[in-house]
Amino acid sequence: MHLIVPFASALGDDAAAVRADLELPALAALLQRLPAGDRDDGDETRYSPPHERALARAVGLAGGDGTLPWAAWRAAALGLETGDLAWAELTPVHCAIGRDSVTLTDPARLDLDESTGRELFEAVRPLFVDDGVALEWGGPGRWFAAHELLADLRCASIDRATGRRLETWAPEGPGARRALRLQNEVQMLLYQHPAHDRRLAAGQTPVNSVWWSGCGRRVPGARAPEGLVVDERLRSPALAGDWSAWREAWRALDDGPLRHALDRARDGLPVQVVLCGERSSVTLTSAAGSWIDRLRRRLSAPDVSALLGTL
Prior knowledge:
Elements: E1 2-5, H1 13-20, H2 25-33, E2 36-40, H3 50-59, H4 70-77, E3 86-93, E4 95-97, E5 102-104, H5 114-130, E6 134-137, E7 143-146, H6 158-161, H7 176-192, H8 194-201, E8 209-217, E9 228-230, H9 235-240, H10 243-255, H11 257-266, E10 272-276, E11 281-285, H12 291-300, H13 304-309
Parallel strand pairs: 1-9, 1-10
Antiparallel strand pairs: 2-11, 3-7, 3-8, 4-5, 6-7, 10-11
Helix pairs in contact: 2-11, 5-7, 10-11
């Protein structure tokens, strides 16, 4: 079992207050059995958040900060012929325009259906084709672009940019100017598209932009290992700042996948749990040892809240 838990911790006083009061008996028991081993330390300014770095290590994706080639990997998984081209993922999004900043709304909350997603995809596709960029359908909320300039385009993860000022997370690299120009053209088109007013009239958030991410070429041989699970139930409440819902999601996670991991550990089966915050991650891995070693681990196990606070 290889479990990756994104948004196991979050920054800010409100998150810290909830974290200090969390009761997670399964995780506490796991910390007594599985040593907190490898850490991937970073900070909240990195383009690739800890859970994406952890998943990249698990599947064998190579790349630097903001250049993990998720688009090519996901496009290939959907059956698209990626070849040697450089790919990018394009996520339809809503950008909330404030008095002095633009903020990205969580795209998962758009609830784009197949029909509207296709309608918007077909509307923006000529902009890319006319510019020499191939655009392929991956789903209502996931499109793929392919062009050589995307090979070295450094982009922030959608999970990193959501809820934050977008000027901090602009693409960087040789293709950045072209990517931003296309993004601006898409914004102008979508603002005038009939779906914009139609969604507003229905009380839905309109799609008014796209977000670039996951650029690069496909890494041959990259694949998800058997037993890998990425549990994302903490993601939406964390990004929304809904700490009551985050607490309840943690309780469900503790009583579900983490309880299952604990049962496996007690049965002597291999277990690996990666807890990921906004800055860092820590890996809990089953380890052999004498009863004295196991006793020492239990006596020296870190407090759950304290460990999560380091992420």
